[in-house]
Design brief:
The chain is α/β, with parallel strands linked by helices. Helix content is 48%, strand content 15%. It has 20 helices and 18 strands. The protein has helices spanning 11-22, 34-43, 60-70, 85-93, 106-132, 147-160, 176-186, 204-212, 229-232, 248-260, 286-291, 297-303, 320-335, 344-352, 358-372, 385-388, 402-407, 410-428, 433-440, 444-453; strands spanning 3-7, 27-31, 48-52, 54-55, 58-59, 75-80, 98-101, 166-170, 194-198, 213-214, 226-227, 237-241, 262-263, 272-273, 277-282, 306-310, 341-342, 377-378. A five-stranded parallel sheet has the order 2-1-3-6-7, with helices on both faces. It has a five-stranded parallel sheet with strand order 9-12-15-8-16. The protein has a two-stranded antiparallel sheet with strand order 4-5. A hairpin with a 2-residue loop joins strand 4 and strand 5. The chain is extended. The two termini are 56 Å apart.
């Protein structure tokens, strides 16, 4: 039950407001002074305060300031019979949610209180997620602390509310299906099926039957009627992984489904209406595939209604520790190990590694450690050699190749050597620009400029 505090030195105002809001199911208390209000706010979590700017000898603006100091997240609605533009502006600048002049109607009070409490609920949910780094739901949680993760998580929560088509892009192993499941589990379709299919794993002649179903006798081996995955996902979600591998003929049929929201089983003569939310994913550059005439541009725009890109793990090293801790705890429980932590040295090594296999590779590494080791701390020597050597500096030649200096001027020779060293450093980190810049001790913008200068952009 939401808690509302009325701060007014006129008893009949408090009683009337209490009567109106208690009738709406709120828990309402009253304070006749600023000190009493501060004590209440300091002692319990108040969802909303209604503050009279004229509290006898007390200045309501000063009371507002002290309340916000006590609880910076407290929502306050200012109420007064002696309002002015100046006091309204000042109170709003200090963080007041709204400003109401007496006398006000009961319906207007109910409405603004309802809006304020809804705002407070949303703000607290966001604060809790940021504070706790709460994972997004799904078969496997999505965990992270980085800014890139927080942005992606916000997109997932936003799109889950509406049934638009989603296109998830990202390198192999970044967790595209996990994100798709999170969208489904946060949506109002969560009680219905989530159907996933890898479009690259099924031969093109069979994919149509898998997606749309078939009638008895439609082809050799069709001994009975079969529902397709779109029908199985009715009222739920269908996840089309590796959509970039779908052949052109099948793309045309999928485009029709997205346009008409109907499917036709192989061998049937009638269409079937379907209500399935479509989420597609790919690790391919679909724009390039369109240029190569291997992916339809009109299908791309149908799929790309709401794009979500999952950055590779090497671009969000802040997430590695949280993911490692989660996998370590999970596999330690599964295998009866007593791992409880990751040493700072091991964390540093993992943060520096490029993780070409992304989250999937990290998960596999932790699983392998839990199979072979017993804990209680994951140490650097437990990590594979390729990770342990990720901090080793690239060997420099004992002396510069004289052929360069002989054939080129000094400036050209220095540039040639600089290009070679940058290329080596990039290869060492798996072309992780952020990490390479850190290793070379130069700003990331400087590194990008030099990469463009020497034609090292990928």
């Amino acid at each position: 039950m939401e808690k509302i505090l009325i701060i007014d030195d006129e008893a009949f105002i408090c009683e009337n407001v209490q009567r109106i809001l208690s009738g709406e199911g709120y828990e309402v208390s009253a304070a006749g002074s600023g000190k009493e209000a501060r004590d209440i706010v300091a002692g319990e979590e108040i969802d909303l305060a209604l503050l009279d700017l004229n509290l006898g000898s007390e200045d309501g603006i000063e009371v507002l300031k002290s309340l916000k100091e006590t609880d910076p997240e407290l929502l306050v609605i200012i109420i007064t019979g002696y309002g002015s533009v100046e006091s309204a502006v000042e109170s709003l600048q200090l963080g007041a949610f709204h400003y109401m002049k007496k006398p006000f109607k009961a319906d207007a009070l109910r409405l603004i209180v309802k809006l304020a409490l809804k705002t407070q609920t949303l703000k607290r949910e966001v604060r809790k997620l940021k504070r706790d780094n709460s994972p997004l739901p799904g078969r496997s949680p999505i965990i992270g602390k980085s800014e890139a993760f927080q942005e992606m998580a916000a997109q997932v929560r936003e799109i889950a509310r509406i049934p638009s088509t989603v296109l998830i892009t990202g390198e192999s192993g970044t967790g595209k299906e996990v994100v798709a499941r999170a969208i489904h589990d946060l949506s109002d379709r969560k009680e219905h099926a989530f159907i996933a299919i890898n479009c690259a794993s099924i031969p093109a002649p069979l994919l149509e039957s898998e997606l749309f179903g078939h009638e008895k006798g439609a082809f050799t081996g069709a001994v009975g009627r079969k529902k397709g995955l779109f029908e199985e996902a009715h009222h739920g979600t269908i996840f089309l992984d590796e959509i970039g591998e779908m052949d052109m003929a099948m793309q045309v049929k999928l485009l029709r489904v997205l346009q008409e929201r109907t499917i036709r089983r192989v061998g049937a003569v009638k269409d079937i209406e379907i209500d399935a939310r479509v989420i597609a994913a790919t690790n391919r550059d679909l724009a390039k595939r369109i240029e190569e005439k291997s992916f339809r541009e009109d299908l791309f725009y149908r799929l790309n209604v709401f794009p979500i890109n999952i950055p590779p793990l090497r671009e969000r090293p802040a997430d590695i520790a949280a993911l490692s801790a989660y996998f370590l705890d999970s596999f330690s429980r599964s295998f009866g190990r007593d791992f409880r932590s990751v040493s700072p040295e091991a964390e540093q090594l993992m943060a520096q590694y490029a993780w070409p296999g992304n989250v999937r590779e990290l998960r596999n590494v932790i699983e392998r450690i839990c199979i072979m080791r017993s804990g209680p701390t994951l140490l650097p020597e437990h990590l594979p050699q390729e990770i342990r050597s990720s901090l080793a500096p690239s060997p420099l030649p004992a002396e510069l190749p004289m052929s360069i200096a002989a054939d080129l001027g000094l400036e050209e020779a220095v540039s040639a050597i600089e290009k070679s060293l940058i290329q080596q450093a990039l290869q060492k980190t798996g072309w992780n620009v952020l990490q390479t810049a850190a290793n070379l001790k130069i700003p990331r913008g400087t590194l990008r400029y030099k990469m463009e200068k020497y034609g090292l952009m990928q």
